[in-house]
Amino acid sequence: MSELETVLATLHRSAAAMAADPRPPARIRLGAAGVTLEWDLLSAGESTSDGGSAGAPAVLLPAGVTPAGAVPNGAAPLGTAAAAEQAGSPGAVATAHHVLSAPTVGVFYRASEPGAAPFVDTGDLISPGQQVGIVEAMKLMIPVEADRGGRVVDVLCADATAVEFGAPLFAVAVD
Amino acid sequence: MHTVLIANRGEIALRVLRTCREMGLRTVAVYSTADEGSAIVREADEAVRIGPGPARRSYNHIPAVIEAARMTGADAIHPGYGFLSENPDFAEVCAGEGITFVGPPPGVMERLGDKASARAAMVAAGLPLLPGSTDAIDDPDRAKALADEIGYPVIIKAVAGGGGRGMAVVREAAAFADTYRRTRAGAAAVFGDGRVYVERYLDSARHVEIQVLCDAHGDGVHLGARDCSVQRRHQKLVEETPAPGLSAEVQHAIGVDAVRAVLSVGYEGAGTVEFLVDGDGRHYFMEVNCRLQVEHPVSEMVTGIDLVAEQLRVAMGEPLRFTQEQVPLDGVAIECRINAEDPTKDFAPTPALLEAVDLPGGPFVRVDTHVAAGRRIPPEYDSLLAKVIVWGPDRDTALRRMDRALAETRIRGERLATTAEFLRGVIAEPEFRAGRHDTGLLERMKDRSRGVPV
After folding, report:
1. How many CB pairs below 8 Å do chains A and B form together?
2. Are residues A21 and A82 in the same domain?
3. Residue B296 sits in the same domain as residue B364
4. Most buried pick, A10, B281, B294, B299, via CB within 10 A?
5. How do residues B175-215 score in pLDDT, each as one tens digit?
6. Cα distances (Å, whole numbers) of residue A63 to A5, A11, A67, B303
7. Which residues of B have a catalytic role annotated?
8. Which of A16, A7, A11 is nearest to A153 (CA)?
9. A59/chain B closest Cα distance in angstroms
10. With a CB-CB cutoff of 8 Å, which residues 132-151 of chain A face chain B?
11. pLDDT, tens only, B339-351
C-alpha cells in the first residue's frame, strides 16, 4: 500500500466509526498528510439508489498528487479518477461507490434466516469473499459475496425482494 | 394458461410473442445482459434479466429461467428452438413447479433426444434405417468391425449431438480408429456424453423432413415435407416445401409413417422427423427434433396453420382442430436464412454493429427477424439475422419471388458480411432451379468457383 492509500484507509475507517454513531454528525471532514476526506451525511439518504453521488465520502486531494494513486484498484471509482483528472486541479470531488449486485435472478435475503441479524448493515466493513446476503433461486441458497472490500454505505435492496441478475444490492465505499 | 414466458432470444422469441399476443396471452421475456434493449424485451408485457451473456449462465440456466417465471406469475414456458428446448430435465423441472412446458413430455423427449434410443424406437415403429448400429457403440474394435461390415463411407455420430455438431465422416477403414476416438472425445467435451453410433454415409442424399403435430389425446397430423438439402457443415441455409423431386403421394406416405411412429412413443406437440432420401428415392430415418424448427414458417405458409398457436393449444390440452384431410398443402414456400456470416471465409461469423437494415416486403413475402439498424449482433449467440420466406403458387414463381426479395435485402455494418447475396447465387444454380440438388450442392459450387472440374 502506498502512503497515500494508507492515509486514505485510515481516514475512511475513522469516518465510518463516526458515521456509525447513533446520532451521526451532518458532515465529517478529516484531514491527514495533505489529504482531506469530506463526507456530507445529511444528503446521504437522498440519492443512493444509483450507487449514489451525494452520500459518498469525497476525497480532496492535495496538489501534486495523482488522482489515480488515490483510487484503490478496480473499476467503480475509476470515474472518480477520470473526473479528477479532467478537473485538473486539487480539490476535485470523488463521487462513485462500488455497487455490489445480484449474482443471479431470485429472491434476495439479507439474513441467513427470518429474524436473524442481517449479514451486513450500513457502516459495516466488508472484505472480498465475505458473505453479505443470499439470493434464493429454485430453493438453492446462492450466497452473495463481496467482490470488493470496503465499507457498506447503503443497502439498496430490501429483504425478501425479487431481484433480476445484476440488480444493485449494496453501495460499498471501497478501501 | 394466461402468461407465457418465452425462454429464448432473437427472431424466434419475437415470433412466439406475436402469436401469444394474437391469442390474448400475456408475455414475459427473459434476457441476458448481451440482449439488453432487444426487440423482445421492448415488446413483452414484462421482461426479466436472468444473467450475463454466456448462455450457460442465462438462457441455458434452468434456475434463472424458473425464477423468472415465478417472479412474473408465468404459468407456461415456450422454449423456442435451441437452448433449453430439448432438455428433458428442464421440462421435468417445469412440471414439478406446476408450469406448463410447451413441448413433448419429458420422458418422450429423453427417449427421442438420445439418438441411439430414438433409432431403436423408430425402427420398432417401422421407419426404415440406414445400415448401422441401433445402439451406441462404446468398444472401438466392435465399432470398426461394424463400419467394415456396413462399407465406407460411414458417419460417426454423437448420440447427444445436434445442430450439425458431433459428427464425422470416415471414408476409409484406415482412418476409422482415429476419427472414432476424436469424435467420442469431442462429444464428451461438448455434450458431456461421449457415446457415438455408426451408420452408412450417403454422399449424395437429400435432407427431407416431416412436420408433425400431435395432441395429448393420441391424434396427430403431418404438415407435409420440407427439403433442407442446401447445407454447409450440416447446417441448413435454404428450406422449402414441398420437397422437389418427390411426388405428393410419396411425401404424404412418409408423413403418415412419421406421424404413426411418433405417436407410438406418446409424442405431443409440434415436432420434426428427419429423413435422408437417396438417389433412388428411398428414405431413411435420421432423427426426431422435439421442438419448433427454424424453418417452420414454410410449412405455415402452405398450410395456413400457425404452428406456435397449435403448440400452445396442445399444451392447454385441447384436441387438434383438424384432421389430416383438412390440412391443405397449397403452393410452394421457400425460406432463406440471412446469417451474419462471410460465405467467402467458410461462413465465419461476423458479429458487428448493424448500420443499415433494409428488409424485403411486397406480395407473399414474410420476414421473421429481431434486428434493426443500430443493434449490435452479440458474438455469444448464433448468427441468424433474418429469415426471408416467400410463397408462390408454383416453385418457379416462388424462386423468382425469392430472388427479388433477396435483392431487396440490404444489411450493412462495419466488417459485417451476410449470406444474402450468396443465397441468390444458390437459388440461381441450374441444379437447384431444376430441383435436382442434394446435400453436396454447396461443396460442388465451391469446387466450381475454384475451377475444379466436377
Report:
1. 44
2. yes
3. yes
4. B299
5. 999 999 999 999 998 888 999 999 999 988 999 999 999 99
6. 16, 18, 10, 77
7. 291
8. A16
9. 33
10. 137-138, 140
11. 999 999 999 999 8
| Shared domain check, B322 and B195 | no
Cross-strand bridge partners of residue B35 = none
Task: Give yes or no: residues B234 and B380 share one domain.
Answer: yes
Q: How close is the nearest chain A Cα to the Cα of B108, in Å?
A: 25
Domain limit, last residue, from A67, A96, A125: A96
Asked if B62 has any chain A CB less than 8 Å from its own CB, the reply is yes
Asked if B228 and B207 count as a contact pair (C-beta separation under 8 A), the reply is yes
Domain containing A13 equals 3-96
What percentage of chain B carries pLDDT values higher than 70?
A: 99
Q: Are residues A28 and A80 in the same domain?
A: yes
With an 8 Å Cβ cutoff, is B92 touching chain A?
Answer: no
Closest to B365 in 3D by CA, of B400, B317, B410, B326: B400
| Closest C-alpha among A167, A101, A157, A162 to residue B71 | A162
Domain end call among B46, B81, B102: B102
CATH number at A160 reads 2.40.50.100
pLDDT mean over B88-93: 97
**Are B194 and B268 part of one and the same domain?**
no
| Complex confidence, ipTM | 0.78
Q: Which residues of A touch B28 (CB under 8 A)?
A: none
Q: Is B112 on the interface with A (CB under 8 A)?
A: no
Query: Looking at the structure, do residues A136 and A150 belong to the same domain, yes or no?
Result: yes
Within a domain: B368: yes
Which range, A11-20, B47-56, B436-445, has the best average confidence (pLDDT)? Answer: B47-56
What is this structure's pTM? 0.81
Q: Based on the domain organization, do A77 and A103 belong to the same domain?
A: no
Query: A108 to chain B nearest CA, in Å?
Result: 12
Is the pLDDT at A119 greater than 80? The verdict is yes
Q: Which of B64, B66, B93 sits opposite A165 (nearest CB)?
A: B64
| Domain boundary pick from A66, A96, A126 | A96
Chain A environment of B32 (Cβ under 8 Å): 165
> DSSP state, B129?
B
Grid cell, residue A89, equals 486541479
CB contact under 8 A, B33 and A166: yes
Distance CA(B250)–CA(B99), nearest Å, equals 40
Q: How many domains does chain B have?
A: 3
Instruction: Please indicate, yes or no, whether residues B155 and B66 belong to a single structural domain of this protein.
Output: no
pLDDT of residue B426: 97
Is B152 inside a domain boundary? yes
Burial profile B164-202: b = 16 or more Cβ within 10 angstroms, e = fewer: eebbbebeeeeebeebbeebbebbeeebebbbbbbbbbb
Interchain pair A165, B63: CB under 8 A: no
**B275 is a domain residue:** yes
Quote the minimal CA–CA distance from A122 to chain B in Å. Answer: 27
Quote the CA–CA distance of B153 and B139 in Å, as a whole number: 19
A106 plus A31 within the same structural domain: no
Look at A105 and B52 and tell me if their CB atoms are within 8 Å. Answer: no
Q: Which of A72-76, B347-351, B398-402 has the lowest mean pLDDT?
A: A72-76
Phi-psi region of B193 (alpha: psi -120 to 50; beta: other; left: phi over 0): beta
Interface test with B, best of A107, A134, A141, A164 (most B CBs within 10 A): A164
Question: The domain containing residue B349 runs over which residues?
Answer: 205-449
Do residues A135 and A92 both lie within one domain?
A: no
Convert the pLDDT of each residue in B223-265 to its tens digit: 999 999 999 877 899 999 999 999 999 999 999 999 999 999 9
* Same domain as B77, residue B185: no
**A138 contacts B49? CB cut-off 8 A:** no
What phi and psi, each to the nearest 5 degrees, are found at residue A33?
50, 35
